[in-house]
Task: structure prediction
Amino acid sequence: MAANTAFVIVGAGLAGAKAAQTLREEGFDGDVVLLGEESERPYERPPLSKGYLLGKDERDTVYVHPPRWYAEHDVDLRLGVAVTAIDPAGHEVTLADGSRIGFEKLLLTTGSSPRRLTVPGAGLDGVHYLRRLPDSDSMKEAFASASRVVVIGAGWIGLETAAAARAAGAEVTVLERGELPLLRVLGREVSQIFAELHAGHGVDLRFGAQVAEITGNGGRANGVLLADGSRIDADAVIVGIGITPDVQLADAAGLEVDNGVLVDARLRTSHPDIHAAGDVANAFHPLLGKHIRVEHWANAVNQPQAAAKAMLGQDVAYDRVPYFFTDQYDMGMEYTGYVEPGGYDEVVFRGQRDTREFIAFWLAEGRVLAGMNVNVWDVTDPIRDLVTSGRPVDAKRLADPDVPLGDLLERRASAG
Result:
């Protein structure tokens, strides 16, 4: 039997498409097979809860590449194809139709899936989850006619869809089990700002809320019943309670799995010829000295590029600082860095919190762990420099808008 020479990518989303692109850009001239369960060619997911959902972006803008790109670059893109098994020893993947594809190297970019609500009525029509392009289409259609929308979960997806529903003119209620939106991600100091933002735009925020049932009539959701016995009428219910990495294939193949597919800094799994990238990868981060799994766009763009280079034998390590962004109403923000829940001892604000034009910095022992710029632009690079330096900074100067961010490190360097 001839040796397997193909590079196979399982998962035709943004991460898979970027990996295929990188392989060609790096000069790989062997077979590249990109397998995707969806019928749509690879697309980006942020517009699904932002510009596309709001009707600001056209459908064609969400795709990673034009339709002809794959054929022009000799990438064998197969859509509507489910991979059912991986044989690491035999270097093969099995498809749903029973056929097999051999590989020299395999990249898993299988992504993640929304957590499902498990209360009675969760399967009624009118209960929406947001992950795929058709989900955004059905949600957009629902917002066009709904006068009352209930959003379950006040994470990023919950808040962005709440903002889109308000923009469409619906009355919106957000139900959150915690004390504040995004509390685990941002901490109390900054979470409060997002609560004020949505309350100021007319959203009914209910914290400490526990959903008992989705009520319905004729097979369609018409409200949400809470554990305290209260009920909220709804024409549409949005569920945004997190995602889970799609590790089933990797787990069944005997690869190491722990909150995602475990990979090293080269994005290599416990099998030397199998890599993983994107939402599904729990990767060792050289700067942080620990494994982290990042569920954001920038990771899906950049991590597979490193994985593709590693598959080609290049000496690479993925050490980019996590980055994500959101747009809600008239507030845009970018977040650079990484903070464990409760893993900071101070938040320093630079700018005006009341007008929502500021930068927030999370510090531990004087070192900047992360920074979030809100309606302040072109500061991502200096924030990243502060994070990656690992050096303590003067909190008073950090809070002073008249002190350029770059000067904080320059002064420290010259003093040292």
Confidence is low (pLDDT under 50) at residues 412-416.
